[in-house]
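fwd from M.: "can u put these together and see what the complex looks like"

so here's what she sent:
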Amino acid sequence: MGKWTRRAFISAGVVVGGGLIVGVAIRPGNRAAELSKLVAGEGETLLHTWVKLDSDNVVTAIIPHAEMGQGVGTALAQMLADELDADWDLVKFEEAPALGEFANYPLGQSILLGGADIPDFVLPTVEGALIRTAHALDLQITGGSLSVRTTGAYGMRIAGAAVKEMLKIAAAEAWQVPVNEVIAENSQLMHKASGRVEPYAAFAESAGQMTPPVSPTLKSVDEFKIMGRHVERHDLPSKVDGTAIFALDVRLPDMLYATVRRAPTFGGGIDRIDDVLTRAINGVMDVVRLPSTEVSSMLGSFTFAESVAVVAKGYWAAKQGMDALNIQWGSTENDAVSSDVIFAQFDRDISAGIDRETDVVKGNLVASMQNAAQVINADYRVPFLAHTCMEPLNATAMVEDGRCEVWVGCQSPLSFRRSIADALGFDIENVTLHNCFMGGGFGRKSRPDYAIQAAQLALSLGRPVQLIWTREEDVRQDFYRPAIQSRFRAAIDDTGDLIAWENTYVDKHDPDEAALIPYSVDAQDIGHVRSPTHVPFGAWRSVAHSQHGFFTESFIDEVAVAAGQDPFEYRAARLQHLPRQLAVLTRAAKEAQWHIPLAPGRGRGISLQSSFGSIVAEVVEVTVNDGNLSVDRVVAVIDAGYAVSPDGMKAQIESGIIYGLSAALYGEISIKEGAVVESNFHNYPSVRMSDAPAMETYIINSGADWGGAGEPGTPPIASALTNAIFNATGNRIRQLPIKNVNLKLTEEPSLVVG
Amino acid sequence: MTVITVNGTEQKLEVDPSTPLLWVLREQLALTGTKFGCGIAQCGACTVHVNGSAIRSCVTPVSAVSGKKITTIEGLAPSNDELHPLQSAWIEEQVPQCGYCQSGQLMSAAALLATNPSPSDADINSAMSGNICRCGMYSRIRRAIKSAAGVQQFDPALAELARELNNG
């Protein structure tokens, strides 16, 4: 798991006061493919990790990822501390500032030849050979469930192991003993024969003058002491007493407050504003039009339409001022578009199949369909979804003497910083970004529109300003999970065996493999057609897996039912070539007591989805009583290779399940007259305590490559739930959300063609 | 002028009396632990206690709490070096993920336990279903409430109320 492949360079130096600093830079290579493909130039590399050992024996890891609830710092620090054999109580972590030095470096001369400057926010002054930044991309992202399996596996562990080896060599030299007799334990070095014991810090300075090891030895799983152990998250005490600082909590002297609106129809502009009533409101200071902005980043290019801001002495006055504003929005070519129009377009484009591109083609689909004992057809679809992070979008900005400072919670600090600089026409060096705790992210906080608006406002006002979006703006100006329609046709032979699988869906999104199935089926044709809409889309927890996990795992259930076989057994029989998937599925069935029948009105459903390097199966139990649905229990099993932080992993899986459950039960962004209908939690509901199921999560440490945890819990839940509803009622749900389905009725059989 | 008592301190405020308490706490008094989530009493992130009862401060005009005793998350713990039993339980059960909703969750839970020291699941559902957690930590919140239940509760407004009652 995560073998050391010499794709990294390790650099070391001494900090003032005798501390040691070590950086690990990773070369693009197969094992970090997800990140390395984002590196633009040949010969460039990614820097994942900085580790500092201070003279007080405290180790600080500087982590290039943002905290949005997932506990990333804790898991990464565990990986470092374990390889370092550090005392866990002496390990701290900090989020890296939004500066290119933490992301991305030219490989070669600066690392190997040394003699360069290290950024002074890490260390006041530095001696020794370190790294110079020549060119920075904006690669400091938190997403894709990547932190543990990239920064952790290729940065933290390597850094920990390298530091330990250097310290042992330094101690051996100082004590004049063989290095293999030096033992590292709990942040101390020991030599048993001579009885010497000294803290790591005693050797930090001499270690910092060494050439770091090219290939430090990593521990095997059975040597792990801190990885796999339950440790408490460092950020939680501040999250129970109100002291954690989110961007919304930033307070600057002389700060004003503002709120904004963009045209409700996407891409629309502002024709005319009448602000007489607004300016009459006590506390309102100004009404400011903010220009549209174009942003290019590694995530693509976007245009954010113009907006209008009301600035006031407090948010309440700004909000009242916004409500009083009389705005004439510009017309657009999409003013007549509704959800019905969009889904009719999807249906038309799938049927037409124009320029259909394939993900997988194998076997002889036509022959298999012709020879089938039974052909099963179904169309599935899901609506657009908003993110509704608990913390509405907000940012605080100040522009003074040609410099801009922004406080924000975001998933991509470097690209935010660059986008703000571009929008203001500032050099990037003149923009400082302070990333705060995020009150949820889920993909939305990778788009910088809200931070740009705050910076534009601060520039225009010449005073610090906190921009707070209303929840209504947050729901109506999102980058939505795309609505998708997916059409299936499957063939079974007279034994019920699945012999052909055909699937066409609209609009391919990341990741590539989301629509693929793990089951052994000889003839497959999976493909997609383009059917773009005007609705802005973006990453939503687990991206395309969340839609396709619902589609494919519902349809395989339909096939099993058509074959007259048990949905678990049917899947298992077709996973014999994938032992990890089979083990996860089987464990889920076992823990859920799959084979014990339920009372009438109750039902169980199962689903399996591999995503972000992890395999997750979920079993849902429901009760449907007179059309009323209760989600009683969810059993989840995850194989992510190895759980660094088991409790953190369980929390992430539970979180992913509830996030997906909200979407499956209630989530629907509808389009009417080109704009979003829903506006707040009353009409875009979320699961609450009273609808939350009992949850059990089981972890399989298979020892396979590290997988992610933040997203893989979400994809299986919708299909496990609708499969359970089918099991309870015979009602096959092919369109989400479930709130639109009358569960008193069983479905019309016409969609299933025998 | 509006006079309110927040976490035991009297505050004299020169604000538009229709301003929701939430914004007075956050902007005038710099008590930012109480959060804005929806503005329409749908999510519970802004929950505080008024005379010991949980209310949504985003829809409560400050004039409506004139002369009343308000407790926010900053005043939930009995002292600077002691946590409220629910706060300890929240850490013990590792409840928060992003943490943004947790001030409101804790204030709702504290109001529940103050009047119902051993709540049933149904009691917890009815007291806590006004508080959304988008990270979905409901099962942990439920466990933490149960683990803290029965432990002595502390709320400055309630404690003062008890003193007043005792003094006749």
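replying to her w this: Chain B is about 35% helix and 10% strand.
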